[in-house]
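R.M. (postdoc): so does anyone remember the format we settled on? I'll just put the structure tokens first.
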């Protein structure tokens, strides 16, 4: 494992964000355009990502049930802990939502599988791929619940439940599960169309993120950013890896635990925050900072774990 892997994964993210900054400086897009495009990504493209993640998953191959259950339990525990702890220090509900989501959600699709592949080769990457295909929809659903709960000043359980069922991400997940359960195979043309649409999300969301960055906001949010970066890149992976090690996981299993817990915040968290009443600018800054700092932290984590002989 070398720093080249971290750089090769993060560099495109930084380039997309930089393009967004340039686009905004050139006035090719304004606030109205950013808002409308965010709405389009959230309502149209996000559901295709969820659908494709579930539809394309191969649960029969490389299924490690114990590892999958461990990850689902750990992410559930993390979600509960964050919702208990963060409100003790942050009172504004939109800020709570962005901070919790920033710590909780991971850019697993972009990072986790390349990390495992680099260390153990593509023949063992299936373990990580199955985990990612199950954990990503799971954590996305939790984040929809979080953002709906934090929307406004008070949470109405009935309204939250209704909004969750109407959420585009949940709708995409339901269709994916339905097609998977019925073992339907989509026509080639339709499958290609949906897959191509799902690939639009990451580059477009990052460009919009860059266009929406505001230096004044970064200064205002510096303490939140420090909290999220420390938690996301150091505390959370330490928690997951230690529990995983003493649980008995080693080698590719422990690297999968590490890969899913140590990577930066998911790009889609920015769009979701903006569209669901959280602190959108803060969410964008969290993605930008965790992505950049992860170049160093992932490299140092791997040095530590290999030095200890845990992987």
């Amino acid at each position: 494992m070398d720093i080249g892997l971290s750089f090769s994964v993060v560099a495109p993210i930084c380039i997309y964000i930089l393009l967004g900054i340039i686009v905004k400086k050139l006035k090719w897009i304004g606030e109205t355009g950013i808002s409308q495009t965010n709405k389009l990504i959230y309502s149209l493209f996000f559901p295709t990502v969820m659908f494709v993640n579930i539809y394309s998953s191969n649960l029969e191959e490389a299924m490690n049930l114990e590892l999958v259950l461990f990850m689902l339990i750990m992410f559930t525990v993390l979600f509960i802990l964050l919702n208990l702890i963060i409100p003790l220090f942050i009172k504004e509900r939109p800020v709570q939502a962005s901070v919790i989501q920033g710590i909780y959600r991971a850019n697993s699709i972009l990072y986790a599988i390349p990390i495992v592949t680099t260390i153990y080769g593509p023949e063992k990457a299936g373990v990580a791929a199955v985990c990612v295909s199950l954990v990503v929809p799971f954590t996305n659903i939790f984040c929809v619940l979080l953002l709906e709960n934090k929307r406004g000043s008070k949470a109405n359980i009935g309204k939250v439940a209704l909004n969750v069922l109407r959420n585009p991400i949940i709708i995409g997940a339901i269709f994916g599960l339905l097609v998977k359960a019925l073992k339907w195979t989509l026509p080639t043309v339709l499958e290609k169309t949906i897959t191509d649409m799902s690939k639009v999300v990451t580059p477009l969301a990052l460009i919009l993120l860059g266009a929406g960055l505001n230096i004044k906001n970064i200064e205002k949010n510096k303490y939140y950013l420090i909290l999220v970066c420390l938690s996301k890149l150091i505390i959370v992976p330490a928690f997951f890896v230690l529990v995983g090690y003493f649980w008995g996981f080693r080698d590719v299993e422990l690297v999968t635990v590490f890969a899913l817990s140590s990577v930066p915040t998911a790009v889609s968290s920015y769009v979701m925050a903006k569209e669901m009443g959280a602190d959108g600018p803060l969410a964008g800054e969290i993605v930008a900072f965790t992505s950049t700092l992860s170049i160093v932290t992932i490299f140092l984590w791997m040095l530590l774990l290999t030095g200890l002989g845990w992987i």
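R.M.: ...and that's the designed sequence above, right after the tokens. Also worth knowing: The mean pLDDT is 84. The radius of gyration is 19 Å.
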